[in-house]
Amino acid sequence: MAPAFRSIALVGNARDHRVAECMLSLAAHLSGRGLAVLVEPAVALPFAPGSVDRCPEEDVARRADLVIAIGGDGTLLYAARLVAGGRVPLLGVNRGRLGFLTDVSPSTMLEDVDAVLAGSCSQDHRSLLAARLERPGEAMRHGLALNDVVVNKRETGRMLELETSVDGRFVNAHGGDGIVIATATGSTAYALSCGGPIVEPALDAWVLAPISPHTLSDRPVVVRAGCEIRLRLAGRHDVLARVTCDGGPLGDLAHGDTLYVGAADAQITLLHPPGYDYYRLLRSKLHWGRGAPGGD
């Protein structure tokens, strides 16, 4: 049975003219089908009168049956934060650069959206990381990440020393620019540029990838998803680290602080149009097999 999508939220940076074109086209198409179209109040585009409803971001998870993120992977990460912990699925239209998460092409956007509305799509459940930053005498800070939790240095020219533990067992003391803790989803993001492996999204594993490690033997490690990772600063007491969740700031990590990263209770659901193939996506985005027989 096809899902009952009656209210569709459109999310994207409307100041980008390519995103704006897609948003206007989708709004006209969806409202023409008798569906409610939700956009944020700040979106200033010439929508047809009565074709859209204004919806603050904090109400998207409550009012929408489907969120269409238009832009790059950063836009979809933003949309994921809006619906994390709810049951609202996400569909991504790629108007960015790589687009590992936004896999709908603008050229087939309307056809793919119609297929999804008819129930002809695959569901892809992705887990999230939960970060908890503890500082003695202060309230804990919490964050969620679909891609990664990153600890990196605040000052240039200063090396960080980070001690990591997994499920209470000491792993290593990392010297360098920091470390990326990535989900399988985030293995093709920052962790990949740090030399980390590509992890198939269905595999329940996380990646710990050092950023510019001081020693070449400090290599990325794949760990079981669901473990508890603990990080603390060592070395110089005048060095601070910065913690981000999917690029959004969580806070500074100072000596005496502890960062815990584990599995979040929340998940998000990505929808893919007919013909979605993860390995074909990798070949396309990473330019594998160019010139080889059968390469696409």
What does this structure look like?
The protein is of the alpha+beta class and about 300 residues long. The chain has two domains: about 130 residues, 3-Layer(aba) Sandwich (Rossmann fold); about 140 residues, Probable inorganic polyphosphate/atp-NAD kinase, domain 2 (Tumour Suppressor Smad4). Helix content is about 20%, strand content about 35%. The chain has six helices and 17 strands. Strands 7-6-17-14-9-10 form a six-stranded antiparallel β-sheet, with helices on one face. It has a six-stranded antiparallel β-sheet with strand order 13-12-11-8-15-16. Helix 1 links the parallel strand 1 and strand 2. The mean pLDDT is about 90.
Task: Give me a quick take on this structure.
With 296 residues, the protein is of the alpha+beta class. The protein has helices spanning 17-32, 60-63, 73-83, 109-117, 190-193, 278-286; strands spanning 7-12, 36-39, 53-54, 66-71, 90-94, 122-134, 141-145, 148-153, 160-166, 169-176, 178-182, 205-211, 221-224, 229-234, 241-245, 248-253, 258-272. The longest helix has 16 residues, at 17-32.
Secondary structure: helix percent? 10-25%
Quaternary organization = single chain
> For the CA atoms, what is the radius of gyration?
21 Å
**How many angstroms separate the termini?**
33 Å
- What is the tally of helical segments? 6
Helix and strand string, N-terminal first?
EHEEHEHEHEEEEEEHEEEEEEH
Number of strands: 17
Our count of domains comes out at 2
Give a quick account of the main beta sheet: strands, pairing sense, barrel closure: 6 strands, antiparallel
CATH topology of the largest domain: Tumour Suppressor Smad4
